[in-house]
Amino acid sequence: MQEIPQPVTGVSVYPYLPHIPIEVPAHFVRGVGTYAVGTLMMDIFYNLDLVEGTPLHGGVVAGVNYYALCQGADGETFQTPWMTCLQGGSAPRFGRTIAPVHETDAAAGTDATPDIAYQVHLRDVSVDLYVNPIEPLVVPLIRGASGIAKFAGLLPGGTWSAAVTGGRRVNTLRKGMRVSIGGINVNGGQPYHVPAVLTTTDAGDPALFREIKA
Questions:
Q1: Burial class (CB in 10 A: 0-12, 13-18, 19+), 156
Q2: pLDDT band at 7 (very low <50, low <70, confident <90, very high)
């Protein structure tokens, strides 16, 4: 999917320090620019391009990893995944490319990964804990995310998988959780529900899900 840059304002950029429980002040504030999520084949890529803002504490440095808090056009604030600074200064640029690998595929080798037969790009993605449909209960896990749902293999016998990025973590997502996923099909703007119960294989960002058949 070709990236569609979305305008963002009020951007604050922070150093990405994984597994270090300290708060670090922003190194760039009041940023204005665009944020985009797209795909190229199996890869997911992110880009944040700022055209103005205020550097602090020495600003951002090319080659260093950062994440950002942004305000979208809808007024909602969201957090980006970490990205690498591609250009510092008063108009910095950030980017990152991820090639999702499912654990079951990695264990079996690349030859075990079937060709993609169907792919759906989604916006306004909702991830809910899977509950028996006869129960009047919804347990939200993620809201307002972006994602890609994929069907791979031959009919019958193919499987669904999904990668979901961004959004709001309403409740804690954990590896092994069974979920249902829906959103708005970017191509046409119609609601779309992934027709499978998926299992969480990676609870990070992007969060990865896979249909695991008995």
A1: exposed
A2: very high
Alpha helix positions (H), the chain: 103-108
For residue 111, give Cα distances in angstroms to 8, 58, 108, 193. Answer: 41, 47, 8, 29
pLDDT at residue 186, as a whole number: 80
pLDDT tier, 103 (very low <50, low <70, confident <90, very high otherwise): very low
With tokens 């969201």, the residue in question is 78
Q: How far apart are CA 139 and CA 39, in angstroms?
A: 29
Q: For the chain, what is the radius of gyration of the CA atoms?
A: 18
The whole-angstrom separation of Cα 15 and Cα 113 is 36
Residue 167 has a pLDDT of: 87
d(CA 88, CA 60): 5
Write the CA distances from 188 to 3, 13, 197, integer angstroms. 16, 34, 24
- DSSP state string for 90-132: TS-EEEEEE----HHHHHH-GGG-PPEEEEEEEEEEEEEE---
